[in-house]
Design goal:
Elements: H1 9-18, E1 35-38, E2 41-45, H2 58-71, H3 79-83, H4 86-99, E3 103-107, H5 110-121, E4 127-131, H6 136-145, E5 148-152, H7 157-164, E6 174-179, H8 191-200, E7 204-208, E8 236-240, E9 250-254, H9 256-265, H10 267-270, H11 277-292, H12 294-311, E10 317-318, E11 325-331, H13 333-345, E12 348-349, E13 352-353, E14 363-368, H14 375-390
Parallel strand pairs: 2-12, 4-5, 4-6, 6-7, 7-8
Antiparallel strand pairs: 1-2, 3-9, 8-9, 10-11, 11-14, 13-14
The structure holds pyridoxal-5'-phosphate.
The site of pyridoxal-5'-phosphate has 14 residues, from helix 5.
Length: 397
């Protein structure tokens, strides 16, 4: 019998194992929340992006269920064919109002939105400038567009300014792209500096606020406060719905001309099935909760403060993050895995993050907090980390 051996793929997989870079999935046996059941054990969950604790909220489940009763399960087609329901449209209008933009456009994921937007706006001969620590989907969008790709140093507007002077912003389209809140470090972009620079250089600014929206700012509007930064300042704003909003999908917010261009030209929008209308129903409900339940953000802030106070006494490098993303950089993949396993043994789930998701030498525990955590949950995590240090689970500062 002929079998396909896939050439050297097996040996490449083995090589990944040898350097502790092999990734595998865990099967979760419970709904998202502050605790997860995995392998029959109940673990405190410190690695989700469910920042406001809404992914398992019964009110969203209720809205989702009535959405299914009303609209069925599948959208049936792409938005441009016959998949764009009144439920999708109503959500787009609410998201536009929330972000202070003329229009918003739903995508099936943040990954799809980022690649789809950059690719629709840029082509050969255009220029894209990206922060060193931007999310993979923003990088992929830049590469796929075939524009000339430029890095700039993380959050360094001087470096960006130097690099921008090399391009001709009149004859070429120039797009500057940044995470709003950086996904692996938890710090926020230098928004004011970026806005100023892009205005001076006639460049377009695109901010992906996947981790900021819902979490930061007045009513959870995120890193890009609509009262301060209009669409003239940040013409392309991305939000995702699978994190603080607790559902799925993503959206682009901006002027009419941007959104209409995407509808005509964005391949990731045109050639894909619309998200189920019931997801839009659940997200509309979620948006109300995000705006109205300020206590979730306040509680989250106090948990973060408590953690940072406690963790400052541990031999880990704390990052300058005010967000629920509180990474502890361990260094090499093997030690990071060791700490992660120790935490799990004592009941705390925090997955190790290794290259290429983060730069070489900065493997880390990407600890995240949600509004569902309690103060004693934070204390339990700190105790577990102290235990890891005491047991001499390899740690470098
Ligand atoms: C998670 C994330 C995305 C991808 O969003 P999905 O909806 O999960 O595909 C995009 N950008 C950033 C910065 C992210 O962290």
């Amino acid at each position: 019998m002929h079998t396909c051996g896939f050439g050297d793929l097996s040996s490449q997989l083995e090589a990944l194992r040898d350097i502790d870079m092999y990734r595998s999935r865990r099967q979760v046996a419970s709904r998202q929340g502050r605790e997860l059941t995995i392998d029959g054990r109940l673990l405190l969950n410190f690695c989700s992006n469910d920042y406001l604790g809404l992914a398992g909220d019964p009110r969203l489940a209720e809205a989702f269920k009535s959405g299914v009763d009303r609209w069925g399960t599948g959208a049936g087609a792409s938005h441009l064919i016959c998949g764009h329901t009144e439920a999708h449209h109503a959500l787009e209008e609410s998201l536009a109002a929330f972000t202070g933009r003329e229009r918003a456009l739903l995508y099936s994921s943040g990954y799809a939105a980022n690649v789809g937007v950059i690719n629709a706006l840029l082509t050969v001969g255009d220029q894209v400038f990206e922060d060193r620590l931007n999310h993979a989907s923003l990088l992929d969008g830049g590469w796929i567009s075939r524009a000339d790709f430029h890095w700039y140093r993380h959050n360094d507007t001087h470096d960006l300014a130097d690099r921008l002077t090399t391009v001709d912003g009149v004859r070429q389209r120039v797009l500057v792209v940044s995470d709003g809140t950086f996904s692996m470090d938890g710090d926020q972009c230098e928004l004011e500096g970026l806005v100023e620079l892009c205005a001076a250089q006639s460049s377009w600014l695109m901010v992906d606020d996947a981790h900021g929206m819902g979490v930061h700012g007045k009513d959870g509007t995120g890193t890009v406060d609509p009262a301060r930064f209009t669409s003239a300042d940040v013409p392309i704003l991305i939000g995702t719905l699978g994190k603080a909003f607790g559902t799925a999908g993503a959206f682009v917010a901006g002027d009419e001309v941007l959104i209409e261009t995407l509808i005509q030209r964005s391949r990731n929008y045109i050639y894909t099935t619309a998200i189920p209308a019931a997801i839009a129903c659940a997200t509309s409900r979620s948006l109300e909760i995000v705006k109205n339940e300020q206590w979730r953000r306040d509680h989250l802030k106090s948990l973060i403060r408590r953690f940072r106070n406690g963790a400052s006494h541990l031999p880990f490098e704390l990052m300058p993050s005010e967000s629920p993303i509180q990474p502890l950089v361990v260094g090499d993949p093997a030690s990071t895995l060791a700490v992660s396993r120790h935490l799990e043994a004592v009941g705390c789930l925090c997955t190790a993050i290794r290259p290429p998701t983060v730069p070489e030498g900065t493997s880390r525990l990407r600890i995240t907090f949600t509004a569902a955590h309690t103060e004693s949950d934070v204390d339990r995590l700190l105790e577990a980390l102290r235990g890891a240090v005491a047991h001499n689970v390899s740690v470098s500062k």
